[in-house]
From TrEMBL, chain A:
Organism of origin: Salipiger pallidus
Transmembrane among keywords: no
Cellular component terms (Gene Ontology): plasma membrane
Record-linked SUPFAM superfamilies: Periplasmic binding protein-like I
PROSITE patterns: TAT (PS51318)
Pfam families listed in its UniProt record: Bmp
Highest rank taxon of the organism: Bacteria
Record-given protein name: BMP family ABC transporter substrate-binding protein
Record has Manganese as a keyword: no
Keywords: Signal
Stored InterPro entries: ABC-Purine-Binding, Peripla_BP_I, PnrA-like, TAT_signal, TAT_signal_bac_arc
Residues annotated as domain ABC transporter substrate-binding protein PnrA-like: 34-313
Length: 361, 303
């Protein structure tokens, strides 16, 4: 009996030693743990949705595990949930809102083996990359289409908060429209809320009552503005994910973001151990920003121009913010031939001439 | 359409979620119960109403279901506040949070879906007026809401039931001494408050902004609670206050759209600043509060 026991013991311990000798084997079988947290519900459309579907694509591609936590308010709750996700063994973390920045950065510093991607922040670390989209490349194209379709020469934008990301997309929209019709005017209503569908609809109606006939739904996560415009017969477009089903007739298109190329590249780099934190400002040239669901009512010659511009943006021969660009007060914003740098774009705090609403200070 | 026309056309509909919820809260407070859970009850009503209308049960059924759901939640609050005699402020807040949570739970698979609102009915002749005309083109729920305000005013002022409700709120011990069932009347008032909050929520999610998104009530329940104090517990002033509130929240949008050089953050906060100012003015006037205030508001009643 004892001998048998001893033999068994030797056998099992040998097997254990063997397994321990090749740690790579055990680790490779264990799939990558990915997690994301977002402050709003992951609906059928909108910002959180666009992040979630991109993460799901990466999950499929890599056979990883994915945990999605939605509706996590920015603040101590978020920090706790992110710590929890990391202690549960997740190594690839997506923090889907600006306000998660400090908590996510602490986690990245404490856990060098964890890779963190953070939406629209500015802090960078070797395992921490902020990312943002060059929406302005898409809204410029939308402006061209809007100017071609507008009968009144007045365009409008319902916008959430006067922060650089939204200001630049309105400016590019205006510049694109001016490329087709130099006399176009753009009015902006700041709702001063990320989320208030009733006020957003009120804002859209206010713009329509001022004869604006193409509306830019800027950073609304629900089809609030889209449905109002469809009812009123005004063209409308939005950012992030297509809401065409809510406006079958008057949906102008969607400046969509497909984050999956960037997420996939980052996740692969994480697995290879080659991930390096950087400020990822991604656009048409990265396959992240695309305009989808163009309305067939856009005249063909304008559509051809738009396609040209889009190709020129992709190959770098055209930049939206190349001078000469005038500010609202008619002073020069960008000198002739000069182009704004990424840093200047992400900190833009002025409107171009043609935007009639003064920028809130 | 001019900016003025836009404000006039939209302010009644904008006021309706505040007005309906505040009317219910007014009756509830007149009976001496402070229900701070209005926000959550509206959210629950909004999601239930939306789900019913979305599955094409129609608006009538949607409002009924919303009212019923919020009424049940209000009765849970009533049980806490009246039977268990819990602190009304704490119980109201807890029930409000519960309502918001439930709305998120039920609405999960309906996030960002839309429904069709109600058609507008134009009053003959009046709706033909220039500028003012828009004021008289409203959906049927607005007309019914205004009638409800009128009915509640008449009920509180002219009927015996109204007198009893006010007596219960003023001095529950005296009311009980002359044979009225204080607790039962308070339960009824709380249930009515819930019903109206449910209607308000359903109006917000199926008529005013015909879509469901979690958190879409966005603080309107709290404004309703503030409006009751704003109105010093008088239905007439409540209608005025709700309309003023609707008009101010729309006028800041209209001002921006027409390019007025005003600070938009300041404009957006105007309705709230106004509430604080009016609350300050009212609270400073002791006489006004004594005349109209409800003496036993928020105090648990035990025979």
């Amino acid at each position: 009996m004892t001998e048998l026991n001893r033999r068994r013991f030797l056998q099992t311990s040998a097997a254990t030693t063997l397994a321990a000798g090749v740690p790579g084997l055990a680790a490779a079988q264990e799939s990558l743990g990915m997690a994301m947290i977002v402050p709003s519900p992951v609906g059928e459309v909108g910002w959180s949705h666009s992040l979630a579907i991109a993460m799901e694509k990466v999950q499929e591609e890599l056979g990883a595990n994915l945990t999605i936590l939605e509706n996590i308010p920015e603040g101590p709750d978020a920090d706790r949930m992110m710590n929890r996700l990391v202690s549960d063994g997740n190594k690839f973390l997506l923090a889907g809102s600006f306000g998660y920045q400090n908590g996510a950065m602490q986690i990245a510093r404490r856990n060098p083996d964890v890779t963190v991607l953070h939406a629209s922040g500015f802090m960078v670390a070797p395992n921490f990359s902020p990312f943002a989209a060059k929406y302005f490349q898409g809204t410029y194209q939308m402006g061209m289409a809007a100017a071609a379709l507008s009968k009144t020469g007045k365009l409008g934008s319902v916008a959430a908060f006067a922060i650089p990301e939204l200001i630049t997309s309105i400016n590019a929209f205006t510049l694109g429209a001016q490329a087709v019709n130099p006399n176009i005017e753009v009015s902006v209503v700041w709702v001063n809320s990320w989320f208030d569908p009733a006020q957003e609809q009120g804002a859209a109606k206010a713009l329509l009552s001022q004869d604006c006939d193409v509306i830019f739904s800027n950073a609304q996560d629900t089809p609030s503005v889209i449905t109002v415009c469809e009812e009123a017969g005004a063209y409308v477009f939005n950012l992030n994910s297509s809401m065409a089903q809510f406006a079958p007739e008057y949906y102008l298109g969607c400046v969509s973001t497909d984050w999956s190329p960037f997420f996939l590249e980052s996740a692969k780099a994480h697995l290879d151990g080659t991930f390096g934190g950087r400020n990822a400002f991604l656009g048409v040239e990265d396959g992240v920003v695309q305009v989808l669901d163009w309305n067939p009512a856009i005249p063909e010659d304008v559509k051809a121009q738009i396609d040209e511009v889009s190709a020129a943006i992709a190959d770098g021969s055209f930049h939206v913010f190349t001078g000469r660009i005038l500010k609202q007060d008619e002073t020069v914003g960008v000198e002739d031939g000069e182009t704004l740098t990424d840093e200047q774009i992400v900190s833009m705090d002025w409107h171009v001439a043609g935007v009639t609403t003064p920028l809130p200070q | 359409m001019s900016a003025i026309g836009f404000i006039l056309a939209g302010m009644l509909a904008a006021a309706m979620p505040f007005l309906l919820a505040a009317l219910g809260e007014l009756v509830c407070e007149r009976a001496g119960v402070l229900n701070l859970g209005i926000e959550g009850m509206m959210a629950l009503g909004a999601v239930v109403g939306f789900i019913i209308v979305h599955s094409s049960g129609g608006h009538l059924l949607g409002f009924a279901g919303a009212g019923l759901a919020s009424m049940v939640l209000a009765l849970v609050f009533g049980w806490l506040a009246l039977a268990v005699r819990a602190n009304q402020v704490a119980a109201g807040l807890a029930i409000g949070i519960l309502g918001s949570g439930l709305s998120a739970l039920f609405g999960k698979s309906f996030e960002s879906q839309t429904v069709t609102g109600l058609p507008k009915h134009a009053l003959p002749w009046l709706s033909e007026l220039p500028v003012l005309g828009g004021l008289f083109r409203q959906d049927v729920a607005v007309w019914l809401g205004l009638l409800a305000a009128l009915a509640i005013w008449a009920l509180l002022r002219f009927t015996k039931l109204g007198l009893v409700i006010r007596a219960v709120g003023e001095n529950p011990h005296a009311a009980r001494a002359i044979g009225y069932k204080v607790i039962a009347i308070r339960y009824a008032a709380v249930a009515f408050g819930g019903l109206m909050a449910g209607f308000a929520g359903a109006y917000a999610s199926t008529v005013y902004t015909p879509l469901w998104a979690e958190g879409m009530i966005a603080g309107r329940g709290w404004i309703a609670v503030a409006l009751v104090v704003f109105a010093t517990w008088m239905p007439g002033r409540l209608v005025f206050g709700a309309m003023l509130f609707g008009a101010v929240s729309l006028s800041q949008l209209a001002a921006q759209a027409s390019g007025v050089a005003l600070n938009s953050q300041l404009l957006s906060s105007l309705p709230y600043v106004m509430t604080i100012l009016v609350l300050g003015v009212i609270s400073a006037n002791r006489g006004l509060l004594k005349m109209n205030g409800v003496a036993s508001l928020g105090e648990p009643f035990g025979p």
